[in-house]
Amino acid sequence: MSFLDDNREEVARGARAVIVCPTFRSRGGSADPDARLEEAKGLALAIGLVVVDALLVPIREARAGTLFGDGQIQNIAATCEMEQAELVIVDGALTAIQQRNLEDKLKRKVIDRTGLILEIFGERAATAEGRLQVELAHLDYQAGRLVRSWTHLERQRGGFGFLGGPGETQIEADRRMIRDRMARLRRELEQVRRTRGLHRSRREKAPWPVIALVGYTNAGKSTLFNQLTGAGVMAEDLLFATLDPTMRRIRLPGVDKAILSDTVGFISDLPTQLVAAFRATLEEVTAADVIVHVRDIANPDSLAQKRQVLEVLEELGLVEGEGGTPRVPIVEAWNKWDLLPPDRAGELSEQIAAHPDEVIVPLSALTGQGCEELLTAVAKLLTSGARPHEFVVPVGDGQRLAWLHAHGEVVADEDGGEDDRGPLRRLTVRLEPRELGRFVRL
Predict the structure, then answer these.
(1) 338 is in an annotated binding site
(2) Is 268 exposed, middle or buried (0-12, 13-18, 19+ CB in 10 A)?
(3) Is 371 in the same domain as 263?
(4) Which sequence ranges form a coiled-coil region, renumbered to this chain (predicted)?
(5) More confident residue, 219 or 328
(6) Is 240 annotated as a binding residue?
(7) Are residues 405 and 287 located together in one domain of the fold?
């Protein structure tokens, strides 16, 4: 192992970085440039970098060799010198040639948005499945960077540790190794998908509905997951704090048992390699009975983030059309409500009242405010097919009485008189057809 390999983590965690966010004058964009710059800072902080400066650089026409013009590159280089930066992060996509030329001109390591996101994913993936998916994404990205104009390849570029040092792996050997490794990873991931399919089939046989939390990264999904389940999932104010799907059992009003799934956060311009590599993770969302879309309603770019999430859900076939008509019931959880100033909270409350056809629940995952209302809203969607049924049950039959209270919505509970079995209770209970069948078989 080389000296640079030994010190890769130290460099990665403490490197001083300048963020450069290109803004194209000729292109529209849903995200505000300042919000995009803040997001790029968040990505850098998520991997432990020290952001010493962040620049918005307007581009009229992209240069094929460097993306930026000569004057802009000189300005970036001057900022790097002044701030003693070791790393330049370009918040956009760079070709291999652009990356190489920028490194030559700036005399510093340069990574693009895709490389930075892959770096975060490589550090955060905790399960064997997550690591497989991340490695496949890394290799896919790396394969596109092997160009004959390079006499050698930095071994870590495009693989685990973009912020590490150079190795000596040759291009042709890399190509063959990458092809072989990717083929093996795809076979292993296919096995993961089959295993997930088997688990999903078992859940479908058991009458347990699945609720999936989705949302833009750092919207507060994991904090909400922990609040609802009491789990200890990593929940920090970091982008991509959660990468591996986590599932826990919860109880809802009228629903004895349901499965709550926490998923990876979505983000604008998610690398195509990751969209494909994390398909197995996102498949959990496609099996959901209800989707809870967690939004950081205190974020000024919340609406643009919502559009990004809907685009991903559309790719998964869960919404359709320009209006994002859902094929699966969706509840919007407007999180971080406690951070809103009173006038803004009043405006949003009026918006909720003006859309009674949409299920929107304001809440704070941190304090727990609104979480009970969220569970009630989800339970109503899950039991929307329930019908009222009347049962007369002996008071002494505690098991059946408890079952009805746990699995259905008890509308009425009255004295039912008495017969040879003793005192009776007359209950009117809303039950789903499958729950009714289970009760009859008790």
Answers:
(1) yes
(2) buried
(3) yes
(4) none
(5) 219
(6) yes
(7) no
Alpha-carbon span 124 to 240, nearest angstrom: 8
Establish whether 336 is an annotated binding residue.
yes
pLDDT of residue 380: 87
Both 356 and 392 in one domain: the answer is no
| Residue 300 shares a structural domain with residue 333 | yes
Residue-level pLDDT at 410: 87
Does 296 carry a binding-site annotation?
Answer: no
Give me the mean pLDDT over the 24-42 stretch: 74
**Residue 406, pLDDT score:** 79
Known binding residue 403? Answer is no
Proportion of the chain above pLDDT 90, given as a percent: 30
Is 220 marked as a binding-site residue?
yes
Is 192 a domain residue?
no
Same domain flag for 427 and 350: no
Would you state the structure tokens that stand for residue 82, as one six-digit string?
Answer: 């002044």
**3-state SS class at 213:** strand
> Which domain does 346 fall in, by range?
207-382
Over residues 9-21, mean pLDDT: 75
Q: Is 366 annotated as a binding residue?
A: yes
Count CA atoms within 13 Å of residue 360 on its CB side.
Answer: 17
For residues 213 and 335, state if they share a domain: yes
d(CA 327, CA 349): 26
Q: Number of folded domains in the chain?
A: 3
